[in-house]
Amino acid sequence: MNIKAIVPLIVALVLGLVAALTAWQMTNRQGPKGTAQKASAQVVVLKDNVTPGAELRPESLVMGPAGSEKAPAGTFTSVEQVAGRVSTVPMVAGQPVFETLLAPKGTGSGLQALVPAGMRAITVEVNEFSGVAGLLAPGCRVDIVMTMQGEHSGESIARTICQDIKVTAVGQQVGQEKEKDDDKGMSRSVTLLVTPRDAEAIELGASMGRPRLVLRGSQDKELEQSAGVTLAELRGDPQKQSADPFVNRPVEQVRPATQPSERMVDNRSMQRTRTVQIIRAGNVSTMTFEMAAPEAVTRVPLDR
């Protein structure tokens, strides 16, 4: 027998046994991990997508793995704990249900579940121009501008009456995704989430005209202080003085200076003279007038 031919076979056999032993050891190591995954905690997850204000029904809830041996804080371990609760935000299928995503217990379904304590929901009528061309969606932030009569003048003034207002619903659309029957056209109403005072201001303004919604940036939270814009400002203030100092210089009024005088003519009568100073085109001249006094008057008092 040729030993040189047998040695490679023996080496290959040894290497195969080593490989088999290594694979067997790795399989035994992965066994506990697979057992740990099977022992993962079970929590309540969603079976279907959920819109804000929707009531969570038992048929839309299932139990699913939490991904860890212990359930995360705020999750639920039984369907009975979640059934009947109302969502406040959009949720997707397969998402675990957290307490922070639900309205308080006992809250009814619909828009009322989305109104926090101390706030109010008010609906305003809009059209293509006042509603930002129908591009508004729930969750947008808007300002409200109204045109009204000025306080002291009869001219109209445009003024921002509310700022940084959240759009809760557009028409009957509450969530970001539109319903199938919602693509019929632009919605004619927008529901806003406001304070009670802002609700009064919007109602008063709507009785005088149509409010115009002005879209804000998603990161713009600053409130601007504006006194409004009047028609006089658009036309240019007529009382605004010119920058030319010669135009604004007041016109000096030249008044004639008089110097009354009197002289005695005799004991029975006297004559008075009046001198008038006249300034004309920068030239100064004087004129004297004589006025006869009544008889039997010795002295005539000077004119005042």
Task: Walk me through the structure.
- The protein contains four helices and eleven strands, in the order αββββββαββααβββ.
- The protein is elongated and about 170 Å long.
- The protein is α+β, with helices and mostly antiparallel strands and 304 residues long.
- Mean pLDDT is 76; it is low at 33-37 and 240-249.
- A hairpin with a 5-residue loop joins strand 9 (257-264) and strand 10.
- Strands 3, 4, 5, 6, 7 and 8 form a six-stranded antiparallel beta sheet that branches. A three-stranded antiparallel beta sheet has the order 9-10-11, with no helix packed on it.
- It has helices spanning 3-38, 196-208, 231-235, 245-248, and strands at residues 42-46, 61-65, 120-125, 141-149, 156-170, 189-194, 212-215, 229-230, 257-264, 270-280, 283-292.
- The chain has three domains: 39-114, Alpha-Beta Complex (Type Iii Antifreeze Protein Isoform Hplc 12); 118-235, no CATH class; 251-304, no CATH class.
What can be said about the biggest beta sheet?
A: 6 strands, antiparallel
SSE ordering: HEEEEEEHEEHHEEE
What is the CA-atom radius of gyration, in angstroms? 47 Å
Outline the low-pLDDT stretches: 33-37, 240-249
What's the oligomerization state?
A: single chain
Tell me the span between the first and last alpha carbons: 161 Å
Kindly name the structural category: alpha+beta
Whole-number total of structural domains: 3
Q: Report the mean per-residue pLDDT as an integer.
A: 76
Strand content: 25-35%
- The best one-word shape is elongated
Q: What is the number of beta strands?
A: 11
Helical fraction: 10-25%
Number of helices: 4
